[in-house]
Amino acid sequence: MSGLARVPGDKSISHRSIMMGSLADGVTDIEGFLEGEDALATMNAFRAMGVYIEGPDQGRVRVHGVGLHGLKAPTAPLDCGNSGTSMRLIAGLMSGQRFDVTLIGDESLSKRPMKRVIDPLTLMGVRVEAGEGSRPPLHIHGKGAVKAIDYSLPMASAQVKSCVLLAGLYADGVTTVTEPAVTRDHTERMLRGFGVDVKTEGSTVRLQGGQTLKACKIDVPSDVSSAAFFMVAASICENADITLKHVGLNPTRAGVIDILLAMGANIELSNHATIGGEPVADVRVRSAKLKGIRIPEHLVPIAIDEFPVLFVAAANAVGETVLTGAEELRVKESDRIAVMANGLQACGVNAQPTEDGMIIQGLGYKSGLRYQGTVIESQGDHRIAMSFAVAAIRAEGTMRIRGAQTVDTSFPGFVTLASQLGLNISAVKGRA
Ligand SMILES: O=C(O)C1=C[C@@H](OP(=O)(O)O)[C@@H](O)[C@H](O)C1
Ligand SMILES: C=C(OP(=O)(O)O)C(=O)O
Fold this sequence. Notes:
Elements: E1 2-5, H1 11-23, E2 25-31, H2 37-47, E3 52-57, E4 60-66, E5 78-79, H3 84-94, E6 100-104, H4 115-123, E7 127-130, E8 138-141, E9 150-152, H5 158-168, E10 174-178, H6 186-193, E11 198-201, E12 204-208, E13 217-219, H7 224-236, E14 241-248, H8 255-262, E15 266-275, E16 278-286, H9 307-315, E17 318-323, H10 336-346, E18 350-354, E19 357-363, E20 376-377, H11 382-391, E21 401-402, H12 414-420
Parallel strand pairs: 1-14, 2-13, 5-6, 9-10, 20-21
Antiparallel strand pairs: 2-4, 3-4, 6-8, 7-8, 10-12, 11-12, 14-16, 15-16, 17-19, 18-19
Helix pairs in contact: 1-2, 1-6, 3-5, 4-5, 7-9, 7-11, 9-10, 9-11
The structure holds shikimate-3-phosphate and phosphoenolpyruvate.
């Protein structure tokens, strides 16, 4: 594996750029927008509410903002597809509208918990109806205004924090959210970029309702969660030397780098810059002899989407890796603890799932995964599919991954980019 690559734009920031651009006064120009299914679901939702959005054209999008109160009632349910971020953040914004909305999702999203957003929105005086077990669909009865609340998040979730803050834009008063652990702060940073006064003091974020958003320019960095697949791939591959350009390295998001460094990865950062309030850098990764570690719990929320591929790193490391405090992995697009443990076991790895994590006995960098010919089931989860594509680098024989088209959720062009870097994803034999 060698070469330079730029992975597509950050998914979290792309979602937020459409939402805030739509609510702003004026025209917001976005570059580096992720043309993946999740971010496109958010784009379509705002189009369905009357926002004129040009693009995407090679990552360029122009959003003609309608102002905080300019959205129109959609004529059909808003389809959030596979995207938890779309559903939970849009739920917050819908609370302040003067119309009712129904939010629906695909099979996977329809199984994900929504009580976590229904609870705070109910405290804000909003009537939300949901399906069985507080799952989607969500029916939100917008009243045009919400009550400001002081909310302590019961779990570390940037989606719930963002839902409450975005609803708080429509409150007559100050909304505060306190989080139990640091989670990604893209909402807070982007709101500031749109001229909104958002204060962060320790673990509490504070926002006065009724502030207007002023259109701005947004340059979306490359997605560290997508880059993570190649960081692990290069680490476990022989003679690898790759550089990933312009990767978003917001400290509330880039825990994967700290974890890989602690495992002995050979990672160098250069060309540090700040774009649109978000830190970026180029990330050079070379082959390394990884070792198993106990993953510090404070890094869990800031690397939450990277665990599927970090489990692959652990499977190829020397010694034991222990993950705890990561029960949130069980309510993502799939149960990422169960699905990864099953897949790794099928590759001959001793991977023991626990309620809130996993214990993996690494095979070391000399012996490969003994892939025994069973088909890996990605269970409709893009990150599972890409993680096993990376695992295939060290597998004996060809690894077949079912449902791999889901990679378009977050990483369109994954296979092409992987090929450019020297991985043969469509016909993997032995080591790349
Ligand atoms: O706010 C966001 O953009 C996201 C937050 C995280 O979810 P949780 O808030 O549920 O942890 C993450 O898993 C998801 O991919 C994107
Ligand atoms: C959990 C994820 O996304 P979402 O919650 O937006 O579906 C993810 O992309 O890994």
